[in-house]
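Page 42, continued from yesterday. The earlier attempt failed because a stray header line got pasted into the input along with the sequence. Redoing it now with the clean sequence only.
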Amino acid sequence: MTSKERAYLIKLSHDLTANCQIGKAGLAAENIAQVDGMLRNTELIKLNVMRSLACDIRELAQDIAAAVQAEVVIALGRKIVLYRHSAELAKKGKSISFK
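This time it went through. C-alpha cells are written below.
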C-alpha cells in the first residue's frame, strides 16, 4: 500500500464507527471471526481496543491483520483501522477506488 493510498483510507476512516471491541480477554477466536465477517461486507473497518487490555496496540493490530489477511491502515490511540481488498465487492461496484 502506498502512502497516498494509506492517507486516502485514513481520510475515509474518520467517518467510521468502531463496530468491534477487543476487551480485557485479549484477542479471541470470536474477535477474529467477527473482524473477518466485517471485512467480507466492507473493505475498511475500525476497531476499538478497551483500556482494560494492557498490550501494545501496534502489535495487536499486526496480529489481527495477519489472522484475517488484511493490512493495518493505522493504529492510533485505542483505535485500529484495517483494510482488505475484496474482489467480490469490486464485481458489485462497491469496492474502494483509489483516486
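Notes: The beta strands are 20-22, 44-49, 71-76, 79-83.
Reminder to self: strip header lines before submitting.
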